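Batch job 17 of 40 flagged for manual review because the log was empty.
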Amino acid sequence: MVKPKTFHLIAHTHWDREWYLPRSAFVARLVPAMDDLLARLGSESCLRSFLLDGQTVLVEDYLRVRPEQADPLRALVRDGKLQVGPWYVLADELMPSGESLVRNLLAGSRDAAALGKRSGVLYSPDAFGHPAVWPSLAGEFGIRSGVLWRGLGGEPGLDGDLYRWFGPDGRSVLLYHLPPQGYEAGVDLPSEPDALADAWPKLRSQLAARSRTSHVAVFVGADHHAVRPDLCRLRDRLAALEPESTVVISRLDEFFEAAAAESAMVPALRGELRWSYGYTWTLQGVHGTRAALKRRHAEAEIWLERAAEPLAALASLARLPHPGGVLRDAWRTLLRSQFHDSLGGCTSDAVARRVAARIEDAELAAREVARVSLDALAGYDPDRARERPSAAEPTLLLWNPVPRRRDGVVVADLTGFLADVLVGPPGGRTPRRSRPGEFRPVALDGPAGPIPLQVLGRRRAHERMDSARHYPDQDEVEAVRVAFRAPQLGGFEVTSLEPASTAARRIQGNARARGRVVANDLVEASVNRDGTVRLTDRASGERYDGLLRFESAGDAGDTYTWAPPPRDRIVTVTGASVRVLAQGPLVAALELTGAIRSARGRVDLRAVLSLHGGSPALRITVELDNQASDHRLRVRFPTGLAGGAALAGAAFGSERRAPVVVTSRTYPLETPVATAPAHRFVALAGTRRGLALLAPGFFEYEQTGPGDLVMTILRAVGQLSRADLATRPGHAGWPAPTPEAQCRGYDRLQLALAPVRAADLDAGAALPALWEDVFLPPRAVWLRQASPLRIVPAGLEMGGEGVVFSALKPAESGDGVVVRCYNASGVRSTGWCRLSVPLASAHRVRADECDDEPVSLEDGGRVVRFSAASREIVTLRLRPALPPSSASR
């Protein structure tokens, strides 16, 4: 006997906060829509529920304009009539870091709790694909069900509405997969009886055929749509057409609760969801759009995750003042740049400019939090330095931003006074001056004696010294860039080095540059006549030729999708020249310049190739001036390893992916892209040879059949959406010109290459550690006029087989800090965390910092041990034993 159907009408809106119009225009539309919604939810008893798009930022925007509506809105949320959260914003889920996704859910959960109730469904109706860790993140926030659309469907066996999606750690969600029309499936259902009788059977047939249970979800809503005024009438007339079934207006969690009782046999899913080409548009081409914007975003993420948060947390552990509120505000500013369209770059130019400004604001706030927190840990008081200049001396602060002991080569800028810069009417003031060239730093006093310096360059600059109780002190200075080998530093340790008058020994190092070759004892890089690079792994003798080949090819696509023009050809660098920038022995560097010239325009390129003594990584800084249009600029790195799967960094782990080989005939709806997203690294390796390509944050790459890794530097396109693409027929958005998406002008990016083996990829933690050594070296801060310092011993070290550090941050509420890691290996591991201060308590918590379980302390309260299953995320909340004080402002 067939069980009667229950049709659940899910009333909702999908509200892109910005897209083809800026936020200001959409907020002007949001306010009247929300006014109408609240009035109807409060007065129409049959309108039981409305889903506010799974993101709380819309409530934030609304209440900023309508603060008087806060109490009625909260009452509707508490009663379950208005569903909010769990996200703060509906972000792209493949471009932000794993920690950004956690901050997003933390902010959304905090907002929803303040409103009275959080939605228990992880709702992602329009993101351009989903990471494998998605179900695990849901579990970290106590969420057991989810909804998504793109990235799934169209292949054999993927034709139903419900799945059990398992994360890398084995946790799962009951997943509802939206139909091919997505969240708009029921928006056009008419309420007039005759028209509804004609339209309903087709939609009913499609939804019922997909349904794996007797419960069928019918989403009624669309982009920027207000609530239907006739929703109750629509329900009644659908009920009249369904005498054997039930039609109800439901909350999303009510649908899941009913469907879950019949979901024991739904199919299982595992891994990332990035393939829906036979079902609906996947739109993976956004990963290369406005690439410079994505790089700036990654830099801001690093400042927040790996500088501001850890330093503020260390200050909190030491019971020192720290700007925790500013940190939360900076995160929200960055999160508001992570909307799937915003960070994807598939927006109008006006929106892209606002996104860039928010990213800059977030980074500036993060830099300020890091500065203030480091000052507190070092005992540096800028006011005291200004008030007692006779006691002020130059000092170099060193901070190790990783939780493990290490040394390594550090590059720092030291400054010497040249002249006062007077601001305001002179009033008889005479600026002080000194002679250029007088500032000649030669060494720093280290724990084992003087540390010699390699001078890399000199320049004149302006330096401003700020303090809380005085006007800034602006000076003209001589800035000297130096390299030195740092002393051994503990995890997150802060120390200081004083200038020494003479160097007691020669610089010990093995990096050297001569002619077209830069080398150290581990690797050698030589520049070929065509401007490409040959890298030799000295340990194995393996060679990799044709690296760093810059290539420009036509791009006839739009901001969503790459499309090759007919009869296109690839153009490479001409006129390559090389010169030595630094001879060593700590840093050796070559400068490579050249240009790409084509009918599309010119791209001038400058690449600095540098090696540090004792490091296997070839560091590459690329500067470019793009004056070409409608093209895709990429850089190629042949590995010589045909076939196989590359390992790419991803949120809380990595993904193995094989090359994509398909044709448009197989997928006429949208041609699958050969490119893929990566976080921080992608590597291809065998037992004897292999290469890792590293970048500071997110980037797009392609693995070719012959084994080349190809990184996208930029896609230059001039239209938000086009309808005439061979790779995607039809408009993906509202068409508008986007001349700024042509990415003209100057840009700068950093890369690194290092030889690796398959064992390094299998180890899980090796590539993250290599990335840290390249992009998170010990941070050097020169204090030209430092007050007497009193450095607080506040450090933290973490280890364990396969254990990868992810975050150190102040706790969301109360005192203490939160430290997070994950097990990147395929087996259970035992990890440990050692602190420089004793703890009062340690608890294992979820990423939402709830559901705590006590963990025993060892070694006088300084050591915490934990077990981590394969691919498991581990979060610890630690409370110091020091007496409390006013620790946050």
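Reviewer: the log was empty due to a logging misconfiguration, but the result itself is present. The CA atoms of residues 149 and 178 lie 5 Å apart. Unflagging and moving on to job 18.
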